Amino acid sequence: MLHHALGIIPNGLFDTQIAAAMTGYGDQVGYAHLVKTICDVELSKAYTRTPWCRRPLSEQEILYAFDDVKYLNAIHDRLVQELADKDRTLWHAEDCASLLSAEWTDIDSAGVEKVAKACSGLSRQAQSVAHALALWREEAAKRRDRPREWLLATQAIVALAETRPTTLAGLSKTPEVESGTVKHRGDEILKVIADGERNAGDFVPRLPTSCVAKRDDIRALAAGRRDLRLLTGWRYEFAGAVLEKMAIEGS
After folding, report:
1. Do residues 36 and 118 both lie within one domain?
2. What letters, b where the CB count within 10 A reaches 16 and e where it falls short, cover 182-213?
3. Which residues form the domain of 230?
4. Total structural domains in the chain?
5. Are residues 155 and 172 located together in one domain of the fold?
6. How far apart are CA 223 and CA 97, in angstroms?
7. pLDDT digits (tens, 9 = 90+) for 32-73
8. Overall pTM > 0.70
């Protein structure tokens, strides 16, 4: 939000979820769990479905929202100490720095990349359509100043890439596409789908990562094994050589 609205990136970002994972609280730990564990406070869930765009907010809603930041200082201080105790302060600093990289702040490519990953196992034609829809969604979101997922959800793009409807009736039969979207942007979407199909011959599809190497192969490589398919033939040229170098340098 800061980057989008003001063109700035915050310095000294401290990600509590990353810190919690590195200090033994578990993977993908949420704020409420940290508040309970570290501060011994049970956060209310009474307003989780409140429409926060509505104004004015009630006093109770404001207090509920305040709780979302009220305990951050205490959590931060505890995690900083635990990172230091475990000699993992630099680990955390590196991961937080990566969140502020140019790649992460490239808003124009983030939504397109998300779609590409979701459709990596689909056919060339389907991936071409998905890519076209993702680009259209980015431009439409900018013009209307709306979140991209409000215009067309990623799961809807995946469904449309697979079915590729050619009429409004066919588009309306796609469960993931809302009726309002069909009414107001249906013709646009159908044109984009047609363009994506027409350009499929020139589209370079994404190669599924599982086609290059399974997770077990990556783990085995990091553990020191070299009798792996990843280190032979085209796989070695495509990714194996780079991964092997990283494994050696990290050992």
Report:
1. no
2. beebbeebbebbebbbeebeebebbeeeeebb
3. 209-250
4. 3
5. yes
6. 26
7. 999 999 999 999 988 888 888 899 999 999 999 999 999 999
8. no
